[in-house]
Amino acid sequence: MRKIFLAICLAVCTLLTGCADDGGQKNTVQLLFPDPNSGIWKYIGELCAQLLREANYEVELHHCTNAATQIEQIKEAVEKNPAAIVIGAQDTGALGEALALAKENGIPVIAYDRLIMHTDAISYYASFDNTSVGEFQARYVEEKLNLKSGAGPFTIEFIAGSADDTNAPLFFNGAYDYLKPYIDKGQLVVVSGQQDFRTVATDGWKPENAQRRMTEILQKYYSGGKSLNVVVAANDDLAGALIQAQQSVGYSGAPTILTGQDAGANGIANIKSGKQSMTIYKDPEVLCGKIVRMVKAVVEGSQPAINDVTNIKNDVMTVPSYLCIPMIIDSTNVNIVKKF
Ligand code: BGC
Questions:
Q1: What is the DSSP pairing of strand 278-281 with strand 327-330?
Q2: Is residue 20 classed exposed, middle or buried when 0-12, 13-18 and 19+ CB atoms within 10 A define those classes?
Q3: Alpha carbon 195 to chain centroid distance?
């Protein structure tokens, strides 16, 4: 009699709580994304959540503005035992220990856009080819300035992203390595001399940090009518920082070429008004689509589309990845980007 009573209690409890056998969120995806004020992460978070919901997953979306908060969010997510955790890392080097907890608890982790280091807990990684992003910026400079025909000299400065983001050196090296032969030949001249990643990096991708550095550079190296011809800014926020810096010193000569990335609202507006030359469009719908497929794969044990099984290595594992191809946007095709 007592056994029957216990069995009934258990059945009722299961019905009431909806927890099948292990108390987990079996159909829930925990979406943990970085600073919503940076790049277009807020838009991406909402879009990914929407696409996952359309694929019949419950979604909990959390952004953070520092690594410590994201580590706490990972620990809280692990306690809820979701079907998968998708992470756009705030600091790609700081999540290893927290992700070990996910692995111990058998929760699959998928890395979004930024490769996460020091961990063997990642099932899949989806991103754009980040070296290509920088290279596309550089090719644009090369073409618009006729560098192949020997034109120059032109002055150039670099504004890179944050050193705690694995993408930032890839963007920078993609652009710098492509332009280096022109720097060596004297067709491009880095007047400030600042041309290694650490020196041109922007802490936290924060425009105010880039604006400070560029204001100093403009005052020190470009006063007295010297023109700044090219600025390779890693994303639209940092291109905006250059525009602000120029305004703050009353520098009127806009650079001939100012690059960006994200095709965000400000970048698109600056391209339309002629203040920014180009941006790199990394269609979030394409990337979120890949993520939905990867989530399905880890939940159902199926095989998602993967196009790189050898090259994407953090310092612990080779991560099965899908890298999408980005696209150049300038005033000639800016209307392709419909969302802003
Ligand atoms: C992303 C960029 C973004 C930047 C700043 C990078 O990891 O790939 O799209 O602009 O972070 O948020």
A1: antiparallel
A2: exposed
A3: 22
Mutate which of 91, 262, 286 to test ligand 1's pocket (most atoms within 8 Å of Cβ)?
262
Instruction: State whether the beta carbon of 261 lies less than 6 angstroms from ligand 1.
Output: yes
Which atom of ligand 1 is closest in space to residue 282's alpha carbon? 9
Is the CB of 38 inside a 6 Å radius of any atom of ligand 1?
Answer: yes
**CB of 30 closer than 6 A to ligand 1?**
no
Output Rg (C-alpha) for the chain, integer angstroms.
Answer: 23
Sign of the dihedral through C-alpha 9, 10, 13, 14: negative
- Kindly report the backbone phi and psi dihedral angles of residue 309, in degrees, each rounded to the nearest multiple of 5, phi listed first: -110, 5
Entry pTM: 0.93
Indicate the top mutation candidate among 90, 166, 167 to test ligand 1's pocket, ranked by most ligand atoms within 8 A of CB. Answer: 167
Supply φ then ψ for residue 301, to 5 degrees.
Answer: 75, 25
Q: How far is the CA of 143 from the centre of ligand 1 (A)?
A: 25
pLDDT tens sequence across 255-274: 789 999 999 999 999 999 99
Percent pLDDT > 90 in the chain is 88
Query: Which ligand 1 atom minimizes the distance to the CA of 88?
Result: 7
- Cβ-contact 138, 124 below 8 angstroms: no
211 close to ligand 1 (CB < 6 Angstrom): no
Residue 137: how many other CB atoms lie within 10 Å = 29
- Shortest-distance Cα residue to atom 11 of ligand 1: 39
Strands (E), the chain: 25-33, 58-63, 82-87, 109-112, 122-128, 154-159, 188-189, 230-233, 257-258, 278-281, 321-324, 327-330
Summarised one tens digit per residue, pLDDT across range 75-94 is 999 999 999 999 999 999 99
Q: Please give the single-letter amino acid code of residue 100.
A: A
- Closest residue CA from atom 4 of ligand 1: 39
Nearest 10 degrees: CA dihedral of 232, 268, 256, 224? Answer: -80
Domains and CATH numbers, the chain: 2-122+283-325 (3.40.50.2300), 130-281 (3.40.50.2300)
